[in-house]
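Chapter review: from sequence to fold.
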Amino acid sequence: MFLVYYDMIKIDIKGKLYAVEGGSGSGKNTLLEALAEKGYKIIRGIPSQNPPENSLLNQESQEILDGARINIHTMKADPLDIFNRYIKIMESQQKEAVDLKKKGMKVFLNRSVISFFAHYSLVGGAKLNEELRKLTEKIYNDFLREINGIIVMEKPIKGVAKEGIAGLQNEESEFINKTVEELNKDKNILYLILNANTMLVSDEVSRIEKFIDGCF
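The token string follows.
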């Protein structure tokens, strides 16, 4: 396949977009750092419960976030404000990833609308107003149209706990895993399962590159 290398980012004449999904503490960040070193473009798909990671959001998303903390606790305490920020950031980040795909890049989205659905479920499905409901539906439909495949980090790494979702990591992972399986069954979206508890990062990257070579 014809490839062009520009500023160490892999550019294909036909761009592709992949989501890297999995519960908190499942090894996504370590994997994505390794993929970035290989020249792939990484875009954060949703706001992080870890504030320093939100520096990776684009300017529009950082303005929407405006210093707010977004995690399971704040979603429960102030669902309207937090989900308003969460969903609009998700829209902006996904749009950035799709735009890069259309420029021919191979892009990895660090979490996606799938994680949003998991978090929404974990807080008991807070009621969204009509604007946010329609926006979420649009983001989801755009995701289905643009995504070329999903990489799933199957389980949290043993001994790793994340403050914003402590005690719910396994439930989060199970929801994500089930959703990806359903998308494969209902929408024929290809996916690859990885487990950071049993694999080296170099092996994960190797399997991903074989996987994306087979995605059309």
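Two observations follow directly from the output. Residues 79-102 form the longest helix (24 residues). DSSP finds eight helices and seven strands in the chain.
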